[in-house]
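Report of the visiting student (M.T.), summer placement. My assignment was to run the structure pipeline on a short list of targets and document each run. The first record concerns Reverse transcriptase.
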Amino acid sequence: MKDTRRGTETLELASESLLAINKCGLQGKFKIWCLQFMLISKLLWPLLVYDICSTIVEVIKAKINKYTRKWLGGFPVLSDVAMYCRKAKLNIPMKSILEEYKLGKARLLTMLEESDDPVVKTVQPSLKTKKVEGHRSRRRGERMP
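After the run finished, the structure tokens were exported:
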């Protein structure tokens, strides 16, 4: 199965799960708890295992933000900075699926590159992002063009 198909399946899973959480009879703060500790963890596995583009993750993040604002009490103008910032006055301990996705990809790349296993070391993993390439070159002491 192609990874593009997995991306679509993950997007559908996110949409269906958000709708199910929204329909349950819990209060908003408990719906956010379900989102943070159940749904995002469930979505991160396919995002990290398959080669799913960050555009799909951004669409998932937009859907999550829509429901989160609704569950917080209808603040449609609440910015992402206010929602995910740890040092703002409105301190909501939430994690962004996009940031978790990026961190997970970077951890995976570092784990593979710094493995003690000679077979894993010989295989050069590739991620299709400029930021990761910049990270690699800085670790090697090179400059980005």
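The chain has a mean pLDDT of 79. The longest helix spans residues 28-49. I thank the supervising group for their guidance throughout the placement.
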